[in-house]
Specification:
The protein is an alpha/beta fold. It has helices spanning about 55-60, 85-95, 110-120, 130-140, 155-165, 185-200, 210-215, 235-255, and strands at about 10-20, 30-40, 45-50, 70-75, 80, 95-100, 170-175, 205, 220-225, 225-235. It has one domain: P-loop containing nucleotide triphosphate hydrolases (Rossmann fold), CATH 3.40.50. The chain has eight helices and ten strands. The strands form two sheets. A six-stranded mixed β-sheet has the order 6-7-8-3-9-10, sandwiched between helices. A four-stranded antiparallel β-sheet has the order 2-1-4-5, with helices on one face.
Length: about 260
């Protein structure tokens, strides 16, 4: 939809043979099957695939919310599999921003407190100029004293986006971030994520089922049966829809074979 950020200097995320198996024996489910993926710093990447393709599992493993069965994930150059639980928690607070579909705001905190919560938990000082820039970009200046129950769905999701960015994370992960929004609020959020990549150099990895949402990204990877089966650069919604239909048809034919 827009041009990619220029000359990323490093890779924000790298996976090598990333594999995730749930269960054992006859009940084992192979959710990720030796996935190799590189996400350059400053890239807006969308992950798509049919239901059960492994896209949410991949997102959670990249963000350190779930652990691989085998293989590796490097986030900002740090191998997640080498970290203990406490170290992984500290890394997530420092390096990861996460936008959930359900917002996950704390109902007893106002918008300002929800935005700064990751920094407060990590004992870090809020960068006032950066906070003000994010708030202004998202149009939240007159809503900072409001609690989530006093905000619209779109406003709550914008607070969640501000919270994900306020700590200047290595990567912002977004799990179906527009799924609970109306089309106008969804477009506003996606435009902000696009702006975050273009103007702030923010790396974004977003799972979505929506071709229109995916068209905001620089690049799309398509998953099926836990594997990357296709990629697309500079996508548009129609091309994304056609590719998804093709992949879903292939999955059905493979299942029936």
């Amino acid at each position: 939809m827009t041009s990619s950020p220029s000359s990323p200097s490093s890779d924000a995320v790298v996976t090598r043979s990333a594999t995730r198996v749930y269960g054992v024996g006859d009940t084992a489910v192979l959710a990720l099957d030796a996935v190799d993926l590189t996400v350059p710093t400053g890239q807006f990447l969308a992950v798509m695939g049919p239901s059960g393709s492994g896209k949410s599992t991949l997102l959670h493993c990249l963000a350190g919310l779930d652990r691989l069965t085998s293989g590796s994930v490097e986030l900002g150059g740090t191998a997640l599999e080498d970290l203990g639980d406490k170290e992984l928690t500290h890394l997530r607070r420092r390096e990861v921003g996460f936008i959930f579909q359900s917002y996950n705001l704390v109902p007893t905190l106002d918008a300002r407190e929800n935005i700064t919560l990751p920094l407060d938990l990590a004992g870090r000082t809020v960068d006032g100029a950066w906070f003000d820039r994010i708030v202004a970009t998202l149009g939240l200046g007159d809503r900072l004293d409001h609690r989530p129950s006093q905000l619209s769905g779109g406003q709550q999701q914008r607070v969640a986006a501000a919270r994900a960015l306020v700590s200047r994370p290595t990567v912002v992960f977004a799990d179906e971030p527009t799924g609970a929004l109306d089309s106008t609020s969804g477009a506003e959020l996606l435009s902000f994520l696009r702006q975050a990549a273009d103007e702030f150099g923010q790396t974004i990895v977003m799972v979505t089922h929506d071709p229109a949402a995916a068209s905001y990204a620089d690049r799309i990877v398509f998953l099926a049966d836990g594997r990357i089966v296709s990629e697309m650069l500079d996508p548009d919604a129609d091309a994304v829809l056609d590719r998804m239909k093709s992949i879903e048809t292939d999955v059905v034919h493979t299942t029936e074979a």
